[in-house]
Amino acid sequence: MKLYTRIKRTPEDFIVEEIPALELKKEGNFYLVELKKRNVSTLETLRVISRFLKIPLKEIGFAGLKDRFAVTTQYLTIPTNYEIDERCFRFNGRWKEVKNLNWEKEYGFCIKPLGKVERPLKLGDLRENRFTITVRNFEKNLRERFYRNYDIVKRYGFPNYFGEQRFGSVKSRDDFVLRYLLRGDFEGALKSYFFGKSSVEYWGDWRKLYKTLSPTLEEYEKDLIRGLMRGLSAEKAFRILPKNVRLMFNFAYQSFLWNEYLREYIEEKYPFIRIPFINNWKLSYWIEVPDVEYLKELQIPYTGKEFKVKDKTLRRAMMRVLRKYGVKEEWFDREVGGMVVMTDGLRKAAVFLKDFKILEKTKNRIKVRFSLPPGSYATVLLRFLLKG
User: Fold this and answer.
1) Is 28's pLDDT higher than 80?
2) Terminal Cα-to-Cα distance of the chain (whole angstroms)
3) Which residues belong to the active site?
4) pTM of the model
């Protein structure tokens, strides 16, 4: 049985609460705004807020992307020169402002200003995420597997892979827009953005493209195609996309490469099992770790250009991945499409659960609560606990 038939039967099966890092102040240049949403992505809520409240997307600060098919509470910052009050928005074929939301049935979100803070939120700017998750179809063989794998996680943590949300925040999961950009192929990048690897007979007929896709497009995507219709080059049209959308292409590809570094490292060093992931990719999980104290402190860079790798096993793993996917060193810190891509940074290889608690347990269902540090994914943990 697939993972999401067990943990996401309804949005209420997957509840996420951000624990923010910012503290309210008497004075400040930004409002801290609570965003509660049901069955809608973070990026979509930002676009709706931007459109209805006339606030440029770049002015809205947020700490992370939260699952779409879930009930989540997170926080935004908005400059105090914009008016902000309690508002609710519902999606029923189109977005509409409403007085309140039926949280048991409707899809949408509400925002509520809490007070002022001194600076805007940025990605990763929170203390932790708290998850309350219901697992269904929790039959006997699954229960045994869950408790056995939880014992491994309790002792050794679990691999800090990027979860599927990191790859679903752009249009296509089966291709990487950034690979086209790095080759200077902006038209290929646009085609990948709209259609992935699918072939399209009318590509290049911008009027037909506009007419076909228009009902499902965001306003900035319509602007992009209108630009192509006016004769803009593919590169200039690409720059019409908001910068936070363009940056997602970079994040998605670098996250994929990082996951591959970690998978290769685990497979060379530890006893492991492979578990299916999206797009026929695989994630490998350790089942025994003799050097857990070392692993706790291990950080893996995104490129290794700025943060040199001393661990020989990790260095070999990274080189194998870069060779396999044809990644060139001259791509690191490169400016392309109005953004700097393939930058270096560090991410912990392992993550450990905090405050794990079983809230409810029946013959066919279990409800658990736990916290994870920012940037770590509950779905990555659950893939291992439930073995896909």
Assistant:
1) yes
2) 8
3) 67
4) 0.89
